[in-house]
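FAQ: What does the model actually see?

It sees only this:
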Amino acid sequence: MIKDSKPRLKLGVTGGIGSGKTSVCRVFDILGVPVFSADREASEIMENDQRIISRINSIAGKNLYINGGLDRMELATIIFNDKTLLEKVNSLVHPVVFDHFMKWVLEQTMPYVIMEAAILFESGAAKYVDKVATVQAPVEQRIERIIQRNKLSRDQVMERMRNQIDDETRMKLSDWVIYNSENDMIIPAILNIHKDILTLINTQI
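And it is asked to produce this:
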């Protein structure tokens, strides 16, 4: 991929929990496309930003950093059972993530960049990107992936799924869909999207 002075397009990559967004983004990374993980950035902010740490403790009504780092399981238990508290934490963290993303974009030199975000539409992140690719996988496969990866119970996984928009809505709002079941080949789909985006960028020159 030819380097440019600055990215001319921002692609959002999203999908329900366990759909395989990170695997898809690894392929884009191999293609030389810079990837900004909104979820990882949010984690960094919640661990290191003292103002955010103070506000999270205030929202939770208790100190979630007793052992020096954020007790993520305890935070998840609190916010995924209370939509109001979930929205409060999200409205606290998301604007900082978006600000970091826009500053990061200015430092990149490739024709396009990616924001990987689990809740791209729910968080308002979609307005910071130009196009969206959704990673889609069968619900049961997603549940099994998360149970094995995160050591969560089925009920805990379902809890998190209920706080995301449904697959059909997400797909309708997206420009591309990458199917990632056990029988699907994601690399050809990613290469096609990569080609489409470069073609789109070249027509804008």
